[in-house]
Amino acid sequence: MLETKSNAIESPAVDASFEPYGRLLRMLMPSLRGVVVHDGFSNLVWASDELDLADEPEVINAAIANALSDTAEFAGIVRTLDADRAVYSFAIRGEQIELLGVVSLIARLSGSLTEARPLQTVRQLVQPALECLRRELSLRSKLGSRERDLGVRERDLNLMLEISSQQSTSSNDTDEFSLIMKTGLERTGCALAALWVPDKNIALSLTRSGQPMSPESLQRAQQHLMAWMQLQQRTIVINHISKVASDVAAPYKILACPVRHSSERVMGVLAMFNPPSAQDFDLHQTRIAEALAKRATSIIQAQYDASTGLMTRQAFEGQAAALLASTATAGPHIILYLDIDRLHVINETFGMHVGDDVIASVAECMAKALPTGALSARISGDRLAALIPRTSMEAAAAAAEKIRAAAAAIVPRAGQGSFEVSVCLGVAPIGRSDNALAHALATAEIACKAAKDRGRDRVEIFQDSDQSIIRRHTDIMVIGQLRDALANDSFRLDAQPILPLRGNYGRPRFELLIRMLGDRGEIIPPGKFLSAAERYQLMPTIDRWVVHRSCRLLGAHSASVGEDIARFAINLSGQSLQDDTFLPYVIDEIKASNLPPGVLCFELTETATIGNLVKAQNFIRNLQDLGCQFALDDFGTGVSSLAYLKDLSVNYLKIDGSFVRDAIVNARSESMIKAIAQLAKVMCMETIAEYVETDMLRARMADLGVDYGQGFAMGKAQPLEELLQELAIYEATVSAWAGEPKSA
To answer: Would you say the pTM of this structure is higher than 0.70?
Structure first.
């Protein structure tokens, strides 16, 4: 048996708990000579015998550095120490993929074994013991039994005290963010720092000279890093720039840390940039950046309302005043004032918690509808406000109408009852006076009250004559516009991420969504034209356009979207299943594109599939033989779901959004979701929850056993062409630095 002797920094009674893991590892790997455990900061925790790797510190540092870029399960490295020994070091991550520690296995090289075994072979041998060690280290981390190295803790403490001591001199949170970036530049020696939080309209940068860079010059970097950060969900260090990245974008070494919501969702990124000639980013710089990112997170949590995500009134007034002072001659600026209709009735009938959910849903509608650069806040109770800079009254009224329509589309449920939601909005310009903001808020509130007097669920514009004009958008002739779009190829494909709900950050998945382009280039979502397309039998034509466009774009980027890297889902209609020429068309398009069929996953709605069962089975079988996958969309809405599921060879079940949306308040919906998740596991299928629009829903779906989530809380849709460009750049960049392929 493996002799064990504690060299740990804790008491022997605690360290003795590692001895069983040493024995288990020896059973799994007979050639083992010693086991060494380090924490995530390269401090020795425990070692068997005298083999503590003290003479080989670069091994542990290399293993930790590798863990920052390699997302594989138990990412590791292998090194040959001398002619008789090899060491295999594996990273142990926690639930939030934080680095808990590194386990190093020192093995004999003798007899027929004169070279180190492949890393993957050893990882497979010892994985059961690594799983046990992960639980042990995770428990110790949660109980606080492991502390940082005293020197590191002292540096971090000094850093946070430095920021806190200067906080009182900052007039608003923008100044505090600037202080964070300035501290980052000084402490890391970087050339450029940037902070981006799109949901909060935060886009700041600072160079060593103290000057910000133009937003346009950093726009692409912001888009790329935000997209990659939301997929990776962790700190990213890029010290080696691939040829692909340097050909497309400015070649910088990058240290990027996530700025997280209180729910742990990534909502922003703090990034440090250095030229290629600079020193590589090291662990100490990484710790500094992560500490600063946490400080930025705490500022955001203090300045933004916890339940709605909008700014507090105090923060809103401070930022609005700063904006008005900096753009005194750039006007005009517009104020929106929103009040929820009859919220007191909802509170009295269904409870205050339901009313709070309504406020949060309306705030979400406002955040989505406002243009970039707008400020939004929860003024008090059910009253919200927004400042739209440098815009016209007509454009502001259109934004207000969009908010009103989105709020009217909310269909909340409380127990067995449902109710309608409506809002009133007032629109007013910000004039030039000593207290312009307060005056504009007052006039916008007057317009909002006028909307209530005239029947609620309206938008009113304040005018000096006190005459309100109701701005309403008329319905467009959708079918005529749709036919024109088909004739002129006026469509666009967007891609929305489908992400794991329970911490398994692997290969990214996306659903392709069609968008129609209006006469002025505006985006028309599918909800506005697909019902007309179904009524006039135009869905097969639209589906053909989607298949052709998808195969052409994905085929052109086949190197960066191989089936081991990403997968894309395409929606198909029941009308296309009934078209006998559609299946040959799809097969021909896939073959002509030279795209690996495994990249594609086709989504069929449950009702369409069951309504065309024989043709659906033939369609699924032929494309699965080719290598494609299938998902059954809107699952749970059909009356005979379970009876037909055994006859359909699908890979995924997409749980209908009607169950997901009210799972928090409806026990029946919750039970249905849990049952579907359990059924899918029995049938070797995976589940995807649609319309995961809030962080609360995201957490609940994970608790119910759902595998993947899709919706606003998981990630926003973006144009497919932009996404493919990002995948090409970052897959090459991160893969080049990681040194090993990512696991699927």
So the answer is: no
The residue with tokens 């989105």 is: 406
Residue type, 368: K
Higher-pLDDT residue of 140, 430: 430
- Residue 589 has a pLDDT of 94
Domains and CATH numbers, the chain: 12-143 (3.30.450.30), 156-303 (3.30.450.40), 331-470 (3.30.70.270), 478-726 (3.20.20.450)
Q: Output the CA torsion sign for 49, 53, 59, 61.
A: positive
CB-CB contact of 457 with 404 (8 Å) = yes
**Mean pLDDT along residues 333-354:** 89
The single residue listed with the structure tokens 């993957």 is: 120
φ and ψ at residue 707, rounded to 5 degrees: -85, -45
Report the length, in residues, of the chain: 744
CA distance linking residue 158 with residue 164, whole number of Å? 10
Taking 70 as the threshold, does the pLDDT of residue 16 lie above it? Answer: no
Return d(Cα 592, Cα 589) in angstroms, integer. 5
Which helix or strand (DSSP H or E) is residue 533 part of? Answer: helix 530-535
**What Cα–Cα distance (Å) separates residue 249 from each residue in 222, 239, 728, 729, 730?**
12, 15, 12, 8, 11
Write the DSSP assignment of 454-481 as a string of letters. TTSS-EEE--TTS--EE--PPPP-HHHH
291: enclosing H helix or E strand: helix 283-303
Angle at 239 between CA 235 and CA 240, to 5 degrees: 130
CA angle 404, 406, 412 (to 5 degrees): 110
Q: What is the pLDDT of residue 472?
A: 30
